[in-house]
Amino acid sequence: MNNKGVDKSKRQFLTSALTVVGAVGSGYLAVPFLAQMQPSVKAMAAGAPVEVDISKMETGQLIRVAWRGKPVWVLNRTPEVLETLKTLDAELRDPLSNDSEQPGSSKNQVRSQKPDIFVAVGLCTHLGCSPTFRPEVAPVDLGEKWKGGFFCPCHGSWFDLAGRVYRGVPAPTNLEIPPYRYASETRIIIGEAAEEKNA
Fold it and tell me: What is the pTM of this model?
């Protein structure tokens, strides 16, 4: 091939121009592709912390909120419930949450940062059904040993009003305690961990 008389500067300019146009075009194609790999606004909102106002909660009341697609319970326990919790250790598989990976604030008898307010993920640790809130004592269908708690209708697991699992039921561990903190005396932020105090 005879290259005499060919203007090499024009060829170099065209090659450079096509390279730049190709790079810009690739960028335009890559941006939407990479953008679709990012989580959607809806997905990011689902994982965001949830604020719960407990200022109007009555004693004994349970409220439900959603966090990360899971039901979370906030229960305002009565003084009678707190007294009953002290009497159940012999009936429970793990009374102090030693066998579960739980926040430090749940490794106590009441499994909460403040004794009267209990926060837990409302899913049975057996197969993920949502237990029902059964605060009544000794109902006919559950018997005399029932002191109030959460009953899983799917396979019959029992949890007390601190989310501690009874012995001899299918659920292997206590109910999960989500990370949470108090933003004020009447506001709880679920999804943000409280600062752990060194003992």
Answer: 0.74
Q: Are 177 and 111 in contact (CB under 8 A)?
A: yes
Q: Which residue has the tokens 């605060």?
A: 135
Give the integer Cα–Cα distance in Å for 68 and 47: 5
For 15, 107, 127, 151, 173, the CA distances from 95, given in Å and listed in that order, are: 74, 9, 21, 17, 10
Could you report the per-residue pLDDT of 60-112, keeping only the tens digit for each? 999 999 999 999 999 999 999 999 999 999 999 988 888 766 788 778 889 99
Closest CA to 191 of 69, 83, 100: 69
Which domains are delineated in the chain? 44-190 (2.102.10.10)
Q: Which residue has the tokens 């989500």?
A: 178
